[in-house]
TrEMBL record:
Keywords: DNA-binding
Keyword Cytoplasm included in the entry's annotation: no
NCBIfam families given in the database record: rrf2_super
Keyword set includes DNA-binding: yes
PANTHER family: HTH-TYPE TRANSCRIPTIONAL REGULATOR ISCR (PTHR33221:SF5), WINGED HELIX-TURN-HELIX TRANSCRIPTIONAL REGULATOR, RRF2 FAMILY (PTHR33221)
A Pfam match: Rrf2
Protein name, entry field: Rrf2 family transcriptional regulator
Domain of life the protein comes from: Bacteria
Length: 160
């Protein structure tokens, strides 16, 4: 059986983006802070896991916690100024690594000498989509032109 290369989106990233979209929606509606319990309930996310994720988001200044009976979390800056890549990096680190190295740090000999160029291009393509898509873009569905072009490609939705 042939193994295929893939980019894995971790549960941490998936949960973080989903929770951040709830905060973006609350900000757009002028709502106040949202508790971890409410975030977990609204997207059926594991509460304890979400607490650890929000510690990372707080350290990255993407969210701010508010104390008190009406406490919870709010976005650290406007949703149009928070990219999906910001969330990804806050909870999972760099967008692309090869055996724990950044793509531009890899080095190969012989026939594989040009492989770092491909790894850098893969990272650049991830950046093009994730850095250029804000939480606000994702919340409203008004995705950047390049993302829409990629989605419209004939084989975009086909497994290979």
């Amino acid at each position: 059986m042939r193994q295929t290369a893939r980019v894995d989106i971790s549960a941490r990233v998936d949960y973080a983006v989903r929770a951040m979209l709830i905060l973006a929606e609350a900000a757009a509606e002028g709502s106040g802070p949202i508790s971890i319990d409410a975030l977990a309930t609204r997207q059926d996310l594991p509460r304890k896991f979400l607490e650890a994720i929000f510690a990372d988001l707080r350290r990255a200044d993407l969210v701010v916690s508010r104390r008190g009976s009406q406490g919870g979390y709010v976005l650290g800056r406007p949703s149009k100024d928070i990219s999906v890549a910001d969330v990804f990096r806050a909870v999972d680190g760099p967008l692309a690594e090869v055996r724990g190295l950044r793509p531009h740090e890899t080095e190969y000999q012989g026939v594989a000498a040009h492989l770092p160029s491909l790894w850098v291009a893969v990272r650049a393509s991830l950046r093009e989509v994730l850095d250029d898509t804000s939480l606000d873009d994702l919340r409203t569905g008004d995705l950047p032109d390049r993302v829409r072009e990629l989605l419209a490609a004939p084989d975009a939705w086909r497994n290979r």
